[in-house]
Amino acid sequence: MPLHYIYLILAVAAETVGTTALQASQQFTRLVPSLIVVGGYGIAFFLLSLTLRVMPVGIVYAIWSGLGIVFIAVIGLVVFGQRLDLPAILGISMIMAGILVIHLFSGASPH
Protein backbone atom coordinates (compact mmCIF):
# COMPACT_ATOMS: atom_id res chain seq x y z
CA MET A 1 0.00 0.00 0.00
CA PRO A 2 1.44 3.42 -0.91
CA LEU A 3 2.61 5.52 2.02
CA HIS A 4 0.19 8.38 1.25
CA TYR A 5 -2.75 5.99 1.73
CA ILE A 6 -1.33 4.87 5.07
CA TYR A 7 -1.11 8.53 6.11
CA LEU A 8 -4.71 9.05 5.00
CA ILE A 9 -5.98 5.99 6.89
CA LEU A 10 -4.14 7.11 10.02
CA ALA A 11 -5.56 10.62 9.59
CA VAL A 12 -9.08 9.20 9.43
CA ALA A 13 -8.39 7.12 12.54
CA ALA A 14 -7.04 10.14 14.44
CA GLU A 15 -10.02 12.26 13.40
CA THR A 16 -12.39 9.50 14.45
CA VAL A 17 -10.75 9.27 17.87
CA GLY A 18 -10.90 13.06 18.20
CA THR A 19 -14.56 13.22 17.24
CA THR A 20 -15.47 10.37 19.59
CA ALA A 21 -13.66 12.19 22.39
CA LEU A 22 -15.53 15.37 21.45
CA GLN A 23 -18.79 13.64 22.37
CA ALA A 24 -17.21 12.31 25.57
CA SER A 25 -15.77 15.74 26.49
CA GLN A 26 -19.30 17.01 27.21
CA GLN A 27 -18.70 20.36 25.48
CA PHE A 28 -15.09 20.57 26.70
CA THR A 29 -16.05 20.30 30.37
CA ARG A 30 -14.00 17.13 30.91
CA LEU A 31 -10.22 17.56 30.69
CA VAL A 32 -8.94 14.20 29.43
CA PRO A 33 -11.43 13.80 26.56
CA SER A 34 -10.85 17.47 25.65
CA LEU A 35 -7.10 16.86 25.39
CA ILE A 36 -7.77 13.80 23.23
CA VAL A 37 -9.90 15.97 20.92
CA VAL A 38 -7.09 18.48 20.42
CA GLY A 39 -4.45 15.78 20.01
CA GLY A 40 -6.57 13.68 17.66
CA TYR A 41 -7.37 16.60 15.37
CA GLY A 42 -3.77 17.83 15.46
CA ILE A 43 -2.47 14.43 14.39
CA ALA A 44 -5.20 14.12 11.76
CA PHE A 45 -4.36 17.44 10.13
CA PHE A 46 -0.64 16.74 10.21
CA LEU A 47 -1.16 13.39 8.48
CA LEU A 48 -3.52 15.03 5.99
CA SER A 49 -0.79 17.52 5.13
CA LEU A 50 1.54 14.61 4.32
CA THR A 51 -1.13 13.02 2.13
CA LEU A 52 -1.60 16.30 0.25
CA ARG A 53 1.98 16.06 -1.03
CA VAL A 54 0.77 13.36 -3.43
CA MET A 55 -3.00 13.61 -3.76
CA PRO A 56 -5.29 16.53 -4.69
CA VAL A 57 -7.04 18.25 -1.78
CA GLY A 58 -10.56 17.55 -3.09
CA ILE A 59 -9.95 13.82 -3.33
CA VAL A 60 -8.20 13.66 0.06
CA TYR A 61 -10.98 15.60 1.75
CA ALA A 62 -13.72 13.50 0.13
CA ILE A 63 -12.13 10.26 1.32
CA TRP A 64 -11.21 11.62 4.76
CA SER A 65 -14.59 13.14 5.52
CA GLY A 66 -16.56 10.27 3.98
CA LEU A 67 -14.76 7.57 5.93
CA GLY A 68 -14.96 9.72 9.06
CA ILE A 69 -18.75 9.95 8.68
CA VAL A 70 -19.07 6.19 8.30
CA PHE A 71 -16.81 5.38 11.25
CA ILE A 72 -18.42 7.97 13.54
CA ALA A 73 -21.89 6.69 12.66
CA VAL A 74 -20.83 3.17 13.67
CA ILE A 75 -19.13 4.41 16.86
CA GLY A 76 -22.19 6.52 17.67
CA LEU A 77 -24.33 3.42 17.45
CA VAL A 78 -22.01 1.06 19.35
CA VAL A 79 -20.60 3.39 22.01
CA PHE A 80 -23.29 6.04 22.49
CA GLY A 81 -26.42 4.12 21.43
CA GLN A 82 -27.28 6.64 18.71
CA ARG A 83 -29.51 4.88 16.19
CA LEU A 84 -29.82 5.83 12.54
CA ASP A 85 -33.04 5.74 10.55
CA LEU A 86 -33.35 4.34 7.04
CA PRO A 87 -32.69 7.64 5.20
CA ALA A 88 -29.49 8.13 7.23
CA ILE A 89 -28.33 4.60 6.47
CA LEU A 90 -29.08 5.09 2.76
CA GLY A 91 -27.20 8.41 2.74
CA ILE A 92 -24.16 6.90 4.42
CA SER A 93 -24.29 4.03 1.94
CA MET A 94 -24.16 6.57 -0.89
CA ILE A 95 -21.15 8.23 0.72
CA MET A 96 -19.39 4.86 0.84
CA ALA A 97 -20.29 4.26 -2.81
CA GLY A 98 -18.83 7.65 -3.70
CA ILE A 99 -15.56 6.82 -1.96
CA LEU A 100 -15.37 3.57 -3.89
CA VAL A 101 -16.04 5.34 -7.20
CA ILE A 102 -13.26 7.84 -6.48
CA HIS A 103 -10.81 5.14 -5.50
CA LEU A 104 -11.62 2.65 -8.24
CA PHE A 105 -12.34 4.85 -11.23
CA SER A 106 -10.94 8.36 -10.76
CA GLY A 107 -7.73 9.30 -12.51
CA ALA A 108 -7.32 12.16 -10.01
CA SER A 109 -6.55 9.68 -7.23
CA PRO A 110 -3.09 8.14 -7.52
CA HIS A 111 -3.15 4.38 -6.93
UniProtKB/TrEMBL annotation:
Keyword Transport: yes
Cellular compartment(s): Cell membrane
GO biological process, one term: glycine betaine transport
GO cellular component, one term: plasma membrane
Principal location class: membrane
Coiled-coil stretches noted in the UniProt entry, renumbered to this chain: none
Molecular function GO terms recorded: amino-acid betaine transmembrane transporter activity; antiporter activity; choline transmembrane transporter activity
Membrane topology listed for this record: Multi-pass membrane protein
This protein's UniProt keywords: Cell membrane, Membrane, Transmembrane, Transmembrane helix, Transport
Family label: Belongs to the drug/metabolite transporter (DMT) superfamily. Small multidrug resistance (SMR) (TC 2.A.7.1) family.
PANTHER family linked: MULTIDRUG TRANSPORTER EMRE (PTHR30561:SF1), SMR FAMILY PROTON-DEPENDENT DRUG EFFLUX TRANSPORTER SUGE (PTHR30561)
Protein name: QacE family quaternary ammonium compound efflux SMR transporter
